[in-house]
Amino acid sequence: MQPYNHRYGMLISKNQIKQVRSLGMKKYREESRLFIAEGRKCTGDLLPHLHCKMLIVQEGESIPATWDTTGTEILEANETAIKQMSQLCHPQGIIGVFEQPQHSLPDPQDDLLLALDGVQDPGNLGTIIRTADWFGIRDIICSKDTAEVYNPKTVQATMGALARVSVHYTDLPAFLQNYRHPIYGTLLDGKDINRTDLSAQGIIVMGNEGNGISEAVRKLITHPILIPSYPAEYPTSESLNVSIATGIVLAKFRE
Questions:
Q1: Which of the four, 9, 79, 127, 179, has the lowest number of CB atoms within 10 Å?
Q2: Edge-to-edge strands of the sheet including 52-58?
Q3: In whole angstroms, how far apart are CA 228 and each of 109, 182, 207, 241?
Q4: Span 71-100, mean pLDDT?
C-alpha cells in the first residue's frame, strides 16, 4: 500500500533515496558526476542552465509553473524520505539532482578574473561565488586544494549563482605564470587598495582563511594590495573573513 497519494507520477524508491543521499559524499559525486541542490531558489535558478536528472518534491509542495522540467524525472517523497536525502538542518521540500557541467579554462587575457588559493571552507567558497556573480565575475580559477564547488554546503551558499559563474580547478601557479595582465593579491604588506590604480583587466587572488596566499602564488603577485582597517591606529580583529574581503575588493574594482 502506498503511504500517501502522489501527483507527480511516481514515488521515489528506496534505492533512489540511497543514491541521492550518497551525493552528500565527495566520492560519489565524483563517480557519478552529479550534485544536489535544495529549495526553490537554488534549484529554480539552476534549472534553466544545467541538466536536472531528477527532481524530488515533498508531498504538499508544488513545482512552479514557470519551471521547464523537460527531460527531468520528477518524483514525490514524504517528509521522512526528504529528511533522509537532505543535507540541510531544515529541509526545504525540493531536491534537484544535477549533472556537473564541464567548463574549459577561460582565455587568460579576458576581462576580470578571480582566483582562489586554498580556500577551505565550503560556505566561504559558496559565498564568494555568489558575490562574484553580483559583481559580474564569470570565471573563478581555483587551486586544486580549494574546497569542492559541488559540496552541498557550497552549492546552497551560492544561492543559484552556479548557474552564471564557472568554477575551474587547475595548477594555479602554472596558470598565473602565463598571465599577462596585472595579478593582484591581498597581502598584509600590500598597498592600500584605496590608493591603488586598479585595472579593468586582471586577476585577483584571494588566499587561504588561515595562511593567506601560498608562497608559490605569492611570488607571482605583481600588484600586492591591502584592505586597511579603520582607523589605522585602532586595534581591530587580526583579519577579515575571506568572503567578506572578496566582496570589498570586487566592489573597489567595479567602482
A1: 9
A2: 34-38, 94-99, 52-58, 73-77
A3: 29, 21, 17, 14
A4: 94
Instruction: Tell me the three cell numbers of residue 41.
Output: 531558489
Backbone φ and ψ of 139, nearest 5°:
-135, 135
> Coil, strand, or helix at residue 169?
strand
Nearest CA to 186 out of 140, 224, 132 is that of 224
Three cell numbers written together for 80:
521522512
> Which ranges of the chain does DSSP label H, i.e. alpha helix?
14-22, 26-32, 40-46, 79-85, 122-134, 152-158, 172-177, 215-218, 242-254
Residue owning grid cell 567602482: 255
Give the three cell numbers for residue 90.
531544515
Question: In Å, what is the CA distance from 120 to each residue of 65, 117, 128, 146?
Answer: 38, 9, 12, 6
146: CB partners within 8 A, 6+ apart: 116, 117, 118, 119, 120, 125, 169
Question: pLDDT tens digits for 39-65?
Answer: 999 999 999 999 999 999 999 888 988
What distance in Å separates the CA atoms of residue 114 and residue 162, rounded to the nearest whole number?
15
Strand order in the sheet with 166-170: 166-170, 139-143, 112-117, 202-207, 183-192, 223-226
What is the mean predicted confidence (pLDDT) over 221-249?
87
Question: What is d(CA 95, CA 38) in angstroms, rounded to the nearest whole number?
Answer: 4
- How far apart, in whole angstroms, are the C-alpha atoms of residue 74 and residue 166? 27
Distance CA 187, CA 213 (A): 8
